[in-house]
User: Fold these one by one.
Assistant:
Number 1:
Amino acid sequence: MDANARAVPNIAVRTLLDRAAQRMDGKFANQPEVTVALRNTMGAAYRDLGVYPEAQQQLERTLELGRRTLGADDPRTLTAASVLGQVALQQHRYAEAQALDGQVLEARRRLLGPENPDTLRSMNQLGFAYQQVRKYEQAEALYSQALEIQQRVLGTYVSGTNCHPCVESLKN
């Protein structure tokens, strides 16, 4: 498939996302859970398309609403913070990414335990944020710990938790 053929669906998806985002305001005012779920999905979709300013806007609104109505420790609120951390990292806003990722990791360890797949994903994400700013010791510590837990508890591979490439990347 050539680049032009691939760009057309992205334009259609982007158009649909833009329209949905414009129509969201006030649509589910009495249903914060629905609003959080929809904005989380739209923010992740914008992120996947590489449209980071719109992703950031949706996710910041989601995070604020989630904290206010569902609580800071709600899994949907934590998801918004985690994806917002990914967006910050993509935009080279490393301090913000590290802060968000650190908060999410701390909450997931406390709420889900250190061996939960979501906790391991958060460890990888924070490790990657550290790696981007050459904080290799902190990155390696997180990657190694996540890898040990993954292999001991979950086996060799669980989506998003595979730490072996992370550890190997630090050796290069």
Note: Residues 1-91 form a domain with the Serine Threonine Protein Phosphatase 5, Tetratricopeptide repeat fold (CATH 1.25.40.10).
Number 2:
Amino acid sequence: MKDNTSLYSSITLGQYLKEYSDPLRRYFGITNLGYLQIFPDHSYFYICNNEELIKQYTNTINRTELFYDYQLNNSLPSQDFVPIMWPQNPVFDTMELYLKYNYWHGLSFIKHNKDNVELWWVATSKDNPSINNFYIRNYAVLTNLITNLDIKLKKICPINQRKLFKFTQGVDFSNLKTPILQSLQQEQRNIVNFLDETKCSGSHIELNNGELITLSPRESICLNLLSTGKTMKEAAIVMNISPRTVESHLRNIKEKTGYRYKSELLQKHKKLFSL
């Protein structure tokens, strides 16, 4: 009964998206607009501008893989939406479902929060690969669109209310290592290695008197990772060092700056790279 209520809620809110999806289709050929919120127990809240797709998606999600799963919580920066292009070819059954409805060549915007992961996306027909160039040229416009959509959705259906209408047929992917997840983790390691090799991290800390304290490449990388919400252990995994070494880097930064608390460092930290 609860999932029936959730389905009705998703379809109703999906109508709200048409205020935006219809102009996107007319002006740019973008035919699909949607939102997915995944909770730690792998239940989820889902809406899009296609009622039939909502029904099919929520009916099959209990036996298919999520397009992105809750593990992205450990692989992406917090606070801001991160854009990720869809792969060239489907790698999950769920992606095949989108192709069935002639939706592909998508761009997702993903953000992890303390107790959930949020995804907005736009997509077009499978015969329109040139849309990827449009995404690149107009990234700022699309980011602004997603930001406004997210603000309005929170007003219409606050997060605490969404938990009343979430679907509970989730699958436990806690041990799943998806190709997308592995690719993101490798990308982060490549950035770490690049900054380490070129010595061009460019990070520094501004003291209260305005003086800038330059950090070593490893200190910069460490602080960058911590500023995205990663724990000591998670930062250590990306940097391929021990958590104790991460603590040592943080202790050195405190000694250089005179700041006693990590929260002070993160607030003062200015970075040119966002890991």
Note: Confidence is low (pLDDT under 50) at residues 63-74, 170-177, 271-275.
Number 3:
Amino acid sequence: MPPRDLTVSLAKLATKINSEHRLVRSAAGHMLKHALAAGDLLIEAKEQLPHGEWLPWFESNCPDISPRTAQVYMQLARNRFAIEANAQSAAHLSLAGALKLLAAEDDGIDKRQRRAERERELGARQLRCRSRSSA
């Protein structure tokens, strides 16, 4: 049995360890939340730009974000429903964990359903382009 002073010290350490662990888990949830929000904003910006102007605009206006990171944020935002459907673990997912979840979900979705979703998205983009060009 450890001496009394050591026991008190270990009890304090355990409290601090558990507190830090809770903060780590909380930070991971906040990270995903902010990645989703950034993805939503990136998608909104991209939709407002004419074809071919997205990357130059992005590189000029978001110099601290790599194009790959922006793609990840947008992928997460586009697939928010799959991430949030896994509500129990979503609060604790890292970005890599969320991407793995999407990959696993994607394997289970019927190809026709994915194609229909893409066609709806393409149709919506074409409508936005037409409305911008007629304005």
Note: The chain has one domain: 4-134.
